Amino acid sequence: MGIQKKAIPNRLLNRLLKDLPEGVAVPSAWLSERGISPQLVRKYVTSGWLTALAHGAYSRQVSPVNWQGVVIALQRLAQQPIHVGGLSALNLQGLAHYLPLGGESSIHLWNHGRGFTRLPAWVLAISLSQQFVFHRQRLFDAAVVGEGLARLPTRVRDWTLTASSPERAILEVLSLVGNTSASFTHAAELFEGLPALRPALVQSLLEGCASIKVKRLFFFLAARQDAPWSRKLKVERVALGYGKRQVTRGGRLNVRFSITVPEQFSASRR
C-alpha cells in the first residue's frame, strides 16, 4: 500500500500540485520562490505530497523521476542555459547507432549561456540509471550560440526538452573525437547515418564554430560522403585556420583539410 496522504488544504499546496507535473524534479530554490518555506516542504514530505530525491531536490510522489525529468527541471524550473547535445541529442531523435543494450549510460549536457559552469549539486546527487556528462566549453560564438536548438516533445504535459538539432549535435560529436581510430570511426558512422541536413543552418553554425578541428573534420566527412546538401556549403566563408592538425594518432594526413585521419579513411571512395 502507498503512503496515505494527509489533507493539507491550503493555497500554496493547491498551486504546487497544479503547476508541478508528475515525473519532474523540483529544486528547492523554485519552491522558495513560490513562497514555500523549508519548514513547509518538510511538512509536504511528511504528509506524502512530496518526496525527497536528494538534498535540495524533490518531486511529486506519484511517479518516478528519470533523467529527462531532471533536465526539464534544469531548463524550465531552474532556467539554466543547458541543452541535451551530441550523441544524446541524436539518440533522442532516433539518429544514434550502435548504442549498448539498455540504452545510453551517459547523458551529454552542453552549456549555451554565460555564468553557468557546473551542474547543481542536487542534479548529481539524484539516483538515476544514467550519469550526466556536462560540457562547459562553448563551442560556438555568441552570434550563433542559440542556433540549431530544437524543442522536443516529452511525456510531461505540453512541456518540451531543449536539445541540439542534428546539425548542431554532429558538430558537438566531432568536438569530442579523440585521437584513436575507434573514436574517429564512430563519429564518421554517425555522420553517414544522418538524414539530409539543412545547408543554411550548417553554414551558419560552421561560420560561428570556435573549433578549427571540428570545422575541418566536418568538411572532410561531408566531402567524403558527397551528399547533395553538402554541395551547397561555402567552404571559403568558414575560417579553417593554418597548419596541420593531428586528429588521429598515427593516421595519414589528408592534404585538402590538413588533418590526420585513420588509414581506412585516407583513400577516396570514388
Explained architecture:
The chain is an alpha+beta fold and 270 residues long. It has 2 domains: 11-60, no CATH class; 67-266, no CATH class. The chain is 36% helix and 15% strand. It has 11 helices and 10 strands. The protein has helices spanning 11-19, 28-33, 38-47, 67-77, 86-92, 121-125, 166-175, 181-192, 199-207, 212-225, 263-266; strands spanning 26-27, 50-54, 57-60, 82-84, 106-111, 131-135, 149-153, 160-164, 252-254, 259-261. A 3-stranded antiparallel sheet has the order 1-3-2. Strands 4-5-6 form a 3-stranded mixed sheet. A two-stranded antiparallel sheet has the order 7-8. A hairpin with a 6-residue loop joins strand 7 and strand 8. Helix 5 (86-92) runs antiparallel to helix 7 and helix 7 crosses helix 10 (212-225). The protein is elongated and about 70 Å long. The mean pLDDT is 91.
Strand arrangement across the biggest beta sheet = 1-3-2
Work out the strand percent: 15-25%
The N- to C-terminal Cα distance equals 66 Å
Structural class based on helices, strands and sheet pairing: alpha+beta
Low-confidence parts lasting 5 or more residues at pLDDT below 50?
none
For the biggest sheet, the summary is: 3 strands, antiparallel
Provide the number of structural domains: 2
**What general form does the structure show?**
elongated
Topology, number of strands: 10
Mean pLDDT: 91
Gyration radius, rounded: 22 Å
- What is the count of helical runs? 11
State the helical fraction: 25-40%
Order of helices and strands: HEHHEEHEHEHEEEHHHHEEH
Please outline the helices and strands:
Blueprint: H1 11-19, E1 26-27, H2 28-33, H3 38-47, E2 50-54, E3 57-60, H4 67-77, E4 82-84, H5 86-92, E5 106-111, H6 121-125, E6 131-135, E7 149-153, E8 160-164, H7 166-175, H8 181-192, H9 199-207, H10 212-225, E9 252-254, E10 259-261, H11 263-266
Parallel strand pairs: 5-6
Antiparallel strand pairs: 1-3, 2-3, 4-5, 7-8, 9-10
